[in-house]
Amino acid sequence: MFARKEKLYGFLLVLPSIIAVGIFVYGFIAWSVRVSLSDWVGLTADYTFAGLRNYIELFSDPRFHVDIRNTVIFTVVFVLGALIIGLFLAILLDQRLPGEGFFRGLFLFPMAISFIVTGVVWRWLMNPATSADRLSGYNLLFDSLGLDFLINQWHLTPTYGMAAIAMTAIWQMSGYTMALYLGGLRAVPEELREAARVDGASEFQMYRRIILPLLWPVTLSAVIILGHISLKVFDLIIAVAGKQLPLDVPSIYMWQTTFDGLFYGRGASIGILLLISVAFLIIPYLYYSLRSEGEE
Amino acid sequence: MSTTSSSLSSSQGRRFQRRYLLLIPLILMTIFYLIPLYVMLVTGFKSFEEVSLQTMWNLPSGIHFDNYIEAFEKLKPHLWNSLIMVIPAAIISSIIGSINGFVLARWRFPGSKLVLPLLLFGMFIPYQSVIIPLAVFMKNIGLAGSIPGLVLVHVIYGIPITTLTFYGYYMTVPKELVEAAKIDGAGLLGTYWNIFIPVSAPAFVVVLIWQFTSAWNDFLFAVILTGNKSWPVTVALQNMAGSQIIAGNVQMAGSLLAALPTLLVYIFLGRYFLRGLMAGSLKG
Fold first, then answer.
1. Domains in chain B, ordered, with CATH?
2. Residue A122 CA to chain centroid, in angstroms?
3. Which residue on chain A is closest to B255 by alpha carbon?
4. Is B96 in Cβ contact with A45 (below 8 Å)?
5. Do A118 and B109 touch (CB under 8 A)?
6. Are A6 and B187 inside 8 Å of each other by CB?
7. Which residue in A54, A131, A137, A287 could disulfide with A125, CB within 3.0 to 4.6 Å?
8. Residue A114 is nearest to which of B107, B234, B284, comparing CB atoms?
9. Average pLDDT by consecutive 10-residue portion of chain A (296 residues)?
């Protein structure tokens, strides 16, 4: 396509980036694996081979069990919540109501904000006090609206406190799923809807039987993207709850054990386990999306 | 015939009215989305005397700037750190992404088929899996705890997403344009400069906004790779919120200050932000 010399220029232009990604992503992953298989504790690097000991210890570590449970709760509540609310909003906005642009912009604005800001504000809103004289935040609002039964301890609820933090993530990210779904809905040909109406289908039936099945690919992408966010969730929890054991997740454990506790080997093995869990989600997705792109 | 058409129009009329009922759930959702913003604003504008947990939903007695002044004084150096970190990071990332995207879109070299999936995967990795080597490396090259170090990190880990965004955009540039440039004797660089750069503005805006927002909002890299002098605003705000001494109203004012730059970008350039999202190529 271009002359040989030109090709050389092109190659030289991308080479630094390829090297940088090669080192900082793939090289560092390999380096992390090596650390995770070592005994490294303390400030000086120690690569003495320890086999899978760090991994085995993690799986019998009660704190890591809490982390896994919390990640599962967070992921289920967050992904389902963001999907359902996002789809609901997209269907509402698909009705071409007045002010559609305004609502779309409104539901997306939390995405521009950092998880830290979201967490700090929601912590203020999710004041866990439940005694009548100390109510604040949502609990106070529920109380004054006569919705006392909704008063709860939010993220301090035993066992399921993680669900409250997942709700703040839903607030932040459901606009994104709304946008994805709205894009999908707008791609459904109008003739298909008309045909359904002519056949006497109600609007509900039309969505249920014709449109929703068409949105599966959108749901799949959304699950992948939201899922990988929730597996590595970190700053949101730090901002809402700080470092509390009942609300611990792998990324917080990793941070504390590595940079406060200096257990580098264990920290690295948590990082690698996170990578593996994300890879399970991403690699099949990449495989299929690249293959279908190649077919086009 | 006339009866069918009238019944049709009346059913359309019912549908028309029912549609407006849909505004009710929409408005309820609007309230859910706006509550945090309301509390942030209202609390921030209260005077010090007015603040109590029991009156947090009340409107302020007037517009007081005490909280903003105090929050700004506390966060000023860190807002500045964020700004001088984010601007070069966004600009350098975009330039690199544009060059890479162009070369990958227009030229197949041996192994170029492998580059795309490797980049894509690099976009999704949890940074926890590279952060230990990264921290060691930054210390070894003397950039640990510094803002240039953080810029470097955002630029490098931004390569996958910026490259892929430009790649996707440049794939849509018509082949005829490139062929015509070649007939005119333009080389690789000439084609990039004369054909691709002039049409790149939308992609640049999308990538600049994306990198600006994600670098501004980053916490993980910042908390591990910077020291308290070089903390960007996210880390400073988190520390402020974690302290028992600083009142909630100052925290709310600080939150708004920390959110304002990206919110303004979103308000004024939201169209492009949305376009980037809808392209589906950007991760969350």
1. 66-278 (1.10.3720.10)
2. 17
3. A117
4. no
5. no
6. yes
7. A137
8. B234
9. 73 93 97 96 93 96 96 97 96 87 89 93 90 86 90 90 96 93 89 87 86 90 92 94 93 96 97 96 82 58
The model's pLDDT over A131-183, given as tens digits with 9 standing for 90+, comes to 888 888 899 999 889 898 899 999 998 889 999 999 999 999 999 999 999 98
C-alpha distance from A26 to closest chain B C-alpha (Å): 8
Which residue in A has a C-alpha nearest to residue B215's C-alpha? A114
Q: Which CATH class is domain A12-295?
A: mainly alpha
Angle formed by the axes of helices B23-44 and B248-278, to 10°?
Answer: 140
CB atoms under 10 Å from CB of B72, counted, come to 15
Nearest CA-CA partner of B261 in B204, B222, B217, B207: B217
| pLDDT (tens digit per residue) in B85-131 | 999 999 999 999 999 999 998 877 777 778 888 998 999 999 999 99
Q: Domain residue spans in chain A?
A: 12-295
This complex has an ipTM of 0.91
Contact B156 A21 (CB under 8 A): yes
Task: Determine the Cα–Cα distance for residues B206 and B212; give it in Å rounded to an integer.
Answer: 10
CA distances from A72 to A65, B157, B265 (A): 11, 27, 34
CA distance A1 to chain B (A): 8
Q: Answer yes or no: are the C-beta atoms of A152 and B260 closer than 8 Å.
A: no
